[in-house]
Amino acid sequence: MTTRFADGLAVGTDLVAAVESAVGQALAGLSGSPDLVCFFICGEDPDDVTRAGQRAMSMVPGAHVIGCSATGVIGDTRGVELAPAASAWAATLDGARITPFALETLRAEDRFVVVGLPERSPDDKVAVLLADPYSFPTDAFVERSGEVLGDLPLIGGLANGLQGRGSVRLFADGEVYAEGAIGVMLSGRISVSTVVSQGCRPIGPTMVVTRAEDNLLLELAGQPALARLEDIVSDLEEDDRELVASGLQIGLAMNEYAERHERGDFLIRGVLGIDPEREAVAIGDVVDIGRTVRFQVRDAETAAEDLYELLDAHREEFGRVDGALLFACNGRGSAMFGTSDHDAQAVRDTLGPVGVAGFFAAGEVGPVGGHNHVHGFTASILVFSSASA
Questions:
Q1: pLDDT at residue 246 in the model
Q2: N or C, where is the chain less crowded by C-beta within 10 Å?
Q3: pLDDT tens digits, residue range 37-73?
């Protein structure tokens, strides 16, 4: 059987040796020559990460190569967090067109503009985005991407480094970037789809926002938002109250016309706090009056169930899968599931023994309800199927 996607993982303080091993494993797993290679490196010293990234790019001169630094990497059905390691993913994309890009932000009069996006073509299928969260306005760029990209899906993650600001490194076709964003546009005869698992469960009823100001919810269904929230929490079981205390979320309905709004029907945003004087609830987004919302909680069981259900549904709809790129929040892994391997193993359990690699991101990019968003505590997955389109 022809293998078009393969991955590799290596752990060790010698990052050049680790990336050589990871890329070598990925290349060895392919039946043919690679067209696209992605790699991810976790290391303490940004200079060591840079050298390792340069070595990775030099190993496959005939392919397009992108990668980034991270606080954890995923490959070989495993995750490695906060330890020196490298993962790699190689793909043979017969008939596809691969266009790498590097984005930077420039000031134009009283606003900032992002430059570097390739020209759109009618057969564009998806863009993979890897961004430095400290220098690139990822949230604003992604939320407004529809104005430039139309309905093109964006998927990827926010890179990071173990030293935080200044330690991020991005790699694209031989170049090293310490800021901005990089990625590839995939076009032509290629069958791709996305899975975005936000891992939340609704609590309480759906409600319409009847008064709001910026990111403050003042009234829900005609009553003070804080009073509504207190009523919902008071009716919960003790376990769910503990989940509320550890991190309450809110879901913004993606389809206002749906008869019911259940799990998976919302864009999840965090609840940032309350304003007792105004009886308001502050959330991590600006919501228009008339928007339907529902409070949410997240725990390991709910997150696991959500991911497995979405992947099972994807397999049933699209059939055989050959490979996938996985961008998992750095709040998942061992912090949520007690193991770094959970999300990678979930992909293997549901989609089969396919080439899968990625990294633990500081924010995940992926479409929900037909619009691109930046997420938290999410697994964003780009899936490559067998059929050409």
A1: 84
A2: N
A3: 999 999 999 999 999 999 999 999 999 999 999 999 9
Both tokens assigned to 360? 């633990």
pLDDT > 60? residue 208: yes
- Among left, alpha and beta (phi > 0; psi -120 to 50; other), residue 109 is left
Distances (CA, A) of 282 to 128, 277, 299: 31, 13, 21
CA–CA gap between residue 194 and residue 52 (Å, rounded): 29
pLDDT (0 to 100) of residue 264? 67
Confidence band of 388 (pLDDT split at 50, 70, 90): very low
Residues in the chain: 389
Backbone angles phi, psi at 225, to 5 degrees: -60, -40
DSSP state of 168: -
Cα–Cα distances in Å, from 316 out to 14, 263, 312, 350, 351?
42, 19, 6, 10, 10
Task: Report helix, strand or coil for 189.
Answer: coil
CB 23 within 8 A of CB 37: yes
Lowest-pLDDT range of 27-36, 100-109, 348-357, 377-386 = 100-109
- Over range 262-270, report the average pLDDT: 82
Cα gap 292→220, rounded to integer Å: 9
* Per-residue pLDDT at 247: 86
Are the C-beta atoms of 89 and 128 separated by less than 8 Å? no
Check if the beta carbon of residue 82 is closer than 8 Å to that of residue 163.
Answer: no
Bridge pairing between strands 154-158 and 124-131: parallel
Distances (CA, A) of 90 to 24, 39, 51, 162: 10, 9, 20, 25
Is residue 40 within 8 A of residue 158, CB to CB? The reply is no
Strands 36-42 and 64-69: parallel
Please give the full DSSP string across 69-91, using - where no structure is assigned.
Answer: E-SEEEETTEEEESSSEEEEEEE
Q: Which two tokens stand for residue 303?
A: 């997150």
- Written as one letter, the residue type at 31 is S
What confidence tens digit (pLDDT) does each residue in 289-315 have?
999 999 999 889 999 999 999 999 999
Q: What is the mean pLDDT of the chain?
A: 93
Angle among Cα 155, 253, 191 to the nearest 5 degrees reads 30
Give dist(CA 230, CA 233) in Å, integer.
Answer: 5
Distance CA 298, CA 249 (A): 8
